[in-house]
Amino acid sequence: MGAAPVGRASNGLFIVTGIRFDVYGTPMQVERDATGWRLFRIGGEGKKSPVQASIPEFIAEDELGQFLDDLFHENATPTHPVVRRIR
Fold first, then answer.
1. Count of domains observed in the chain
2. Residue 32 maps to a domain
3. Residue 33 domain flag
4. Are 6 and 33 spatial neighbours (Cβ–Cβ below 8 Å)?
């Protein structure tokens, strides 16, 4: 999947791009900034709400899906049995 979607702009600020997942039917977005990973729930209107969950800084981008699966596996249902990356 490549490097984490974060870089430094010419003005010194970090550029953050979200990685979207369908977490057992719940749209979520993971972002990486200067302080580490942050997790958000995406509402019906596209608004982000922070999720109180810690994603260790050492988790690589290509490991996020498995980490979210481990964290939220109790939410699996027959209609939403997996975590999948959607963007």
1. 1
2. yes
3. yes
4. yes
> What is the token pair recorded at 58?
């050492």
Q: Is residue 1 part of a domain?
A: no
**β-pair partners for 22:** 27, 84
**Residue 37 in domain:** yes
Which residues form the domain of 75? 6-85
Q: Which residues of 13-25 are buried (b: 16+ CB within 10 A; e: fewer)?
A: eeeeebbebbbbe
Using DSSP bridges, classify how beta strands 19-23 and 26-33 pair: parallel, antiparallel or unpaired.
antiparallel
Convert the pLDDT of each residue in 8-18 to its tens digit: 555 555 556 79
Question: What is the model's pLDDT at position 12?
Answer: 58
pTM value is 0.79
User: pLDDT value at position 29?
Assistant: 97
